[in-house]
């Protein structure tokens, strides 16, 4: 496009026009316009022509001049249509070569028209800026040119169809991967845009319809043929290509409907199918980049995130359930839960842009599946914490241990029956404290504060009491040592006692055994010392928790054994003789049958065999004989013989769980009485819903009903005489 700057001079006074000036001048201008339209050189100087237009306008012939100019332009544009009417290939609509030639021809016609109108306007600029500007009904010279081109060339049905068919064919070829002349497309589409409604009405509508059909078919076909990651990759590629088309040659207004069409046909129509076909696989294999792409694409489509959320939740529940409900997997359950939680957290952070909805639904899903199997996860989490806090857990530094405990607390949060956790945790903590097997006091205290923060002070008060007992016991022992030094016969056994407050610690079944005289004497000395300081207290010795260090001599030399009290009683018998039968040992020690069998097993069938069993065998049977092993060898000086009785038995496990249930009954009773005392009269449903609010563990309506009946039987409350669903408190 060329533009000319021509000087504008103003006349102070108007000279008189010579005769025939108007006609002669128009003749000159007409010739110049004709030369421009024929692309030949103009005989006159452009400034002279510009001046001529200005002179005519000054003499009030603007209206005639505009009409004459319009007529000349119209005649020229009308003549253009003939070349297309006579265009030899108009019949073959789909011949792509013919179509391309036609497009180039129409493009040339349009480019020529634009160039000519720019030249013509530069000559008639004065007319355009005065007369045309003052008459709002008249189009400017440029717009007049567009109007003529639209009315006489593009509005011709044959030409318009052929042009749009050709453009659509080129776009289709490009979509199929061919290289096409993009500048030709850009030029033609901007022509349609310049010609106002032609782009919207004639081109865009057909273009979007064809796009819709193409992607509907492509979506159906590729969903069958391709795996989900490849399919989504293709969708992404298509969206990028169409975005690029808008930037390169389509009108910007087409972007929204075009992209919406691609999204609907390639994604919106297949949301469910895509997830059913491939999501589980992507999650199983932790395909981070594919999951990121899934989230990004689904977020573009209405309802996409919602359906992705549902499938996400289902996946977590299904996968989590397989971890929790299978008893064979109990050994690894907690570690698998932690690994699974790490994995979903990572996916939310990296792939799902930390979306709150995905985080919240993940938490709900965890809570759902972990409580599908009541009590067991709580018990196993307590045991897992025990394994991490026990001495000998070399795998973690303090920081790592802290991190593991934090992760455990997150899983712990999802559990409904937290009292089961507490019972097992307390039992294991007791073992760690009493056997001195705690890895680190700091880690123990840290875990306690986490539990306190999560469940309140009431939950941890007993656990804190256990720590307090251990600290107080140390002080008591310092005083006892001094007390012993002042005794006339301090004896040669070094006694350490832990004083445990009954309510804080797990319930231990007292077991009467036959201690030797020296031990009994020491117990009495301690009792006298302790009750002298704390009168009114009652001491009950817990033989199951006792342990000792024994010195022994073998042919190879001296050794020390770290053993339980029961193991101690058995081994001390061999100071009196070299061989004893099972029955004799049982008689002498007074240890309970199954406990004694386990004890003998640890001494005669384990790794460190201080005794020899006759006959050989894994299990201890009636009538077995036990002989002192004088040839005992071991690379260590101090040997710890594993105390089999410290291992948890199935009965112990069951009794811990049963104690929790018993405890729950008391809590339900107390809650019912508390509510009734405050409300005096209450309907059954209201009482039940109030109980659900107050109780911290899961409970079935049937269980609540039983407790209510029990309290009615015990006269804490009564039924209303007229309405059996109403209760009254009995003071």
Automatic annotation (TrEMBL):
GO terms for cellular component: Cul4A-RING E3 ubiquitin ligase complex. InterPro entries: Cullin, Cullin-like_AB, Cullin_CS, Cullin_homology, Cullin_homology_sf, Cullin_N, Cullin_neddylation_domain, Cullin_repeat-like_dom_sf. Pathway: Protein modification; protein ubiquitination. PROSITE patterns: CULLIN_1, CULLIN_2. It comes from the Eukaryota. GO terms for molecular function: ubiquitin protein ligase binding. GO terms for biological process: cellular response to UV; developmental process; DNA repair; proteasome-mediated ubiquitin-dependent protein catabolic process; protein ubiquitination; regulation of protein metabolic process; rhythmic process; ribosome biogenesis. SUPFAM superfamilies: Cullin homology domain, Cullin repeat-like, Winged helix' DNA-binding domain. Pfam families: Cullin, Cullin_AB, Cullin_Nedd8. Signal peptide: none annotated. Gene3D superfamilies: Cullin Repeats, Cullin, Chain C, Domain 2, Winged helix-like DNA-binding domain superfamily/Winged helix DNA-binding domain. Residues 376-604 form the Cullin family profile domain. This is Cullin-4A. It comes from Eudyptula minor. The gene is CUL4A.
